[in-house]
Give the backbone structure.
Amino acid sequence: MGSIVMNFSANALGLDNAATPMGLKAMKELQELNPVKDTATNAQIMFLVLNTAGITMIPTAVMALRLTQGAANPADIFIPTMIGTFISFISGMIAVAIYQKINLFKLPVLVFVGGFIGLMGLLYLWMHNMPSEEIAVKTAMLGGIVIFSVIVSFLVTGMIKKINVYDAFIDGAKEGFTTAVMIIPYLVAILVGIAVFRASGCLDVIINGISYLVALAGLNTDFVPALPVGIMKIFSGGGARGVMAELMETYGADSFVGRLACIMQGSTETTFYVLALYFGSVNIKNTRYALTCGLIADAVGIIAAICIGYIFFH
């Protein structure tokens, strides 16, 4: 549970790849409880799907990239991203709950969902009358306080429990290096697959097909240029980040496409990458319905990001 919480916390802070070591550790510890070593358990599937659809409370990396691209208000995608990632998270949880026949109408789940909705409501009430410049300042301050508090909490907890935090950090780094060597084959395989997918033109074919169908239905197609970010994010966070940067350079960081690309980046996750990496690290071959549930969360997240983008910025 400690490793799972750490993984979710890193995702919530928008720290992207910083969540991977704790996620791998959590998957390894869950594997120790697995009676059939080559088949994913219900707990492992729930963890992986909630990881791929993880809530991003503060999209730190996205806001930093918007700042470098010259956005007038790098934090203006903060609340839209929170809403989009929450919808994606809930859809993933519901999908897994249906497969595993879990009753979600229980007090802890309802408190969590209600609490997050309440938090978003409070943020909206706090910020909706603020000038855009003030929103950027307040959001940056809030993000800085949260991240700094996490770091301080590690140090304080170590002092209280009389743990040498530096030695513990070094031990974790050693374990992380061992894990990194072990997952290299799976990492190379998924990165080669992503490169082939991009170079072959398959992404362009998918985007053009969606654009044609949307236009045929008489709907607005302004969102189509941002779609590559949502689709690429399913495979690779780094690849999606590169596409997002290209779109902001082409259309402008404060354009509808530029902002929508940022919301998509924060509302979806690297399902194929995480599935290959996490399950590969513990040699699981039968992933059961994990991919299906992860893709459901991603699809809902992309659709939600588009709708939210139109509501906030179109």
